[in-house]
# Entry
Amino acid sequence: MRKYIVGNWKMNGTSADLKEIEAIATMSTSYAVSVDSALCIPATLIDRATSRLPEFNLGGQDCHMNVSGAHTGCVSAVMLSDAGATLTLVGHSERRAGQNESDADIRGKATAAQVVGLKVIICVGETLEERDAGQALDIVLGQVEKSVPDNAASDWLSIAYEPVWAIGTGRIPDDSDVAEMHGAIREQLVGRFGADGNNISILYGGSMNGENAAMLLAIPNVDGGLIGGASLTAAKFEPILAAAAKSC
Ligand code: PGA
# Structure
């Protein structure tokens, strides 16, 4: 499977950063033969960035499950698509925790995005307390079961496994723990969706950077990465794409 490397800018970036987005897009094209890449940027920048970079995959970081209506401050999947986005994240742990999003909410958002033709990355992951209590597999597999819609297919859906305690902390799990989790997610996807479950990309996220990417991307069933801090500049993002290209 081709590796899929996605940056998540979170709540970072104003018009002054459009040139960095452009630098990332330009850099990414030199790896496009073997690596798929995308950048999920603040909604306020999508329209301007996609106008400048119509060939590069730019996405949102969330969407509402409704098309329109009385939802002050929210952005719908239709709006993302209208602005030129080709994908969106849903269910990032910062939204599950900060905005109290449930698995049912996330499933609704994923469906709304798929309906308008966006590719979707559903994020899952356990907290440190849950891992320490030996519940990581149960928690994550439960999130996958309840957040992933019944019509999931590899042509629009990817999963990102992001242990909450690894996000932005510089800590990453042991490779055996990553292998176990990705293997279990794969098994569940194949059990539910048949052979196509083998083609659904399972990304790892949480403190992935230029130093650890090669090791993480070599783990079985790690089909790419969701990268926060190390996606903010082309200089930090490039070594991850290079590692992905080498791992093909
Ligand atoms: P990080 O964030 O790479 O900064 O740990 C990853 C994410 O939250 O998607």
Notes: The chain has a mean pLDDT of 98.
